[in-house]
Amino acid sequence: xxxxxxxxxxxxxxxxxxxxxxxxxxxxxxxxxxxxxxxxxxxxxxxxxxxxxxxxxxxxxxxxxxxxxxxxxxxxxxxxxxxxxxxxxxxxxxxxxxxxxxxxxxxxxxxxxxxxxxxxxxxxxxxxxxxxxxxxxxxxxxxxxxxxxxxxxxxxxxxxxxxxxxxxxxxxxxxxxxxxxxxxxxxxxxxxxxxxxxxxxxxxxxxxxxxxxxxxxxxxxxxxxxxxxxxxxxxxxxxxxxxxxxxxxxxxxxxxxxxxxxxxxxxxxxxxxxxxxxxxxxxxxxxxxxxxxxxxxxxxxxxxxxxxxxxxxxxxxxxxxxxxxxxxxxxxxxxxxxxxxxxxxxxxxxxxxxxxxxxxxxxxxxxxxxxx
Length: 372
Ligand SMILES: Cc1cc2nc3c(=O)[nH]c(=O)nc-3n(C[C@H](O)[C@H](O)[C@H](O)COP(=O)(O)OP(=O)(O)OC[C@H]3O[C@@H](n4cnc5c(N)ncnc54)[C@H](O)[C@@H]3O)c2cc1C
Description:
Elements: E1 2-9, H1 13-24, E2 29-33, H2 42-45, E3 49-50, H3 59-78, E4 83-84, E5 88-90, H4 95-104, E6 113-115, H5 117-122, E7 131-134, E8 138-140, H6 142-149, E9 154-157, E10 164-166, E11 169-172, E12 175-182, E13 199-209, E14 217-220, E15 222-224, E16 231-235, E17 239-240, H7 253-263, E18 270-281, E19 288-293, H8 295-301, E20 315-323, H9 329-346, H10 360-366
Parallel strand pairs: 1-2, 1-12, 2-9, 5-14, 12-20
Antiparallel strand pairs: 3-8, 4-8, 5-7, 6-7, 10-11, 11-12, 13-16, 13-17, 13-18, 14-15, 15-16, 19-20
C-alpha cells in the first residue's frame, strides 16, 4: 500500500493546480487520471484563452478578474513557455453591444487600452467598434501547461472505480491518503453531490494552419487566437444537454469559422485538428472549492431541513472538491487550487463565493430532486 497525504482524482487544470499548491505546502501528493494528463476532459479540449471578464461589476466578474490576475502571474512566473501573452481584444458584436462596452469601462480593473477601428484594421481585424485590448491576457497550451504543472508530482494513470474510508484514510486500489480531492470535471459517481448542481456544457474548437500574420488574440462571440507557430485556434461552441459520446467530427466548427471570417482573413485557413469536450459548471456558475457535505446524513438526521431548518452542516471527513470551473478553467484553476490547499493544509476558511456549502440549504428547500 502506497501512502500519501493527498490523492487528487483528475488531471485537468483543476486537479493539476490543486496538486501543485498542496505539494508546494509540503504534502506528499499523488494525482490519478483514467486517461492521462489533460488527455480527455475539458482541459484537453480547451483553447485555454486566459483573459478578464467584462461587465458591470457583478460578483462573478470580480471573482473572475481576481482569478485572472492570479493565474496570469502564476503562469508567467512558473510556466511562461506554455503561456503566450498575446493580448486579447474584446470586440463588441454590434452597435447595441458597443454601447454596453461604454458602460463596462467603469468596471474594468484589468490593465487595458481602447482600440479604434483604424488600429484594429492595422492588426488585420475587420471591425468598426471601439474595443478593449487587454495586453496582459493570453493563451495557454492546455495539455503542455497541465503536464508542466505536474512535473514534480507523482502521477498514475488509474481509474477511480471504488473507494473506502477506514481509520482516517481513503483507500483507492493500492493507494491510500488522508485527504481525497475530487477534480473529476462534470462526472461524479461516488458521492451524493446533487446540491452542487454540476452540469456539463459540451463544446468544440479547432486548430487551423495558416500563414496569416496575426499577433494578437481576440474575442467577439467566439475566440480567435494569435498565430502561434503557424496555428490559429478558433473556439468554441456551447451546447447544453448533449451526450458526452457525441462524435467530434468538425461539423460544429463551420459556424465558428463563419464568424471568424467576419473578423480576420481566413482564406488560407486549413483545419488541422478538432477538439471537443465537456465544461463542468455549477448551479450558480461560481466554482466549487472546499469540503463536501454528507448529504445522506443531513437528510436522514434533519428531516426538517426540507422545510427551512438550518442545522450545522456535517461534512464527509477529509473529502474535498475542486470543480465547476465552467468555460474559464484556465483562468480559475490556479487560484482555486491555491484556495483549496490553504484550506486543507492551513485550515483557512474557503472564500464563501466558491464554498459549495452556499448551495446546500437552498437545494434542500427547493430541489425537485428530493421527495417531500
Ligand atoms: C471546447 C472548449 C473550449 C474551452 N476554452 C477555454 C478557454 O479558452 N479558456 C478557459 O479558461 N477554459 C476553457 N474551457 C473550459 C475548460 O476547459 C474547463 O473549465 C476546464 O478544463 C475544467 O477543468 P477540470 O480539471 O475541472 O476538468 P477536466 O479537464 O474535465 O478534468 C477532469 C479529469 O478527471 C478525469 N476523471 C474523471 N473521472 C475519473 C475517474 N473515475 N478516475 C480517474 N480520472 C477521472 C478525466 O479523465 C479528466 O481528465 C473550454 C472548454 C471546452 C470544452
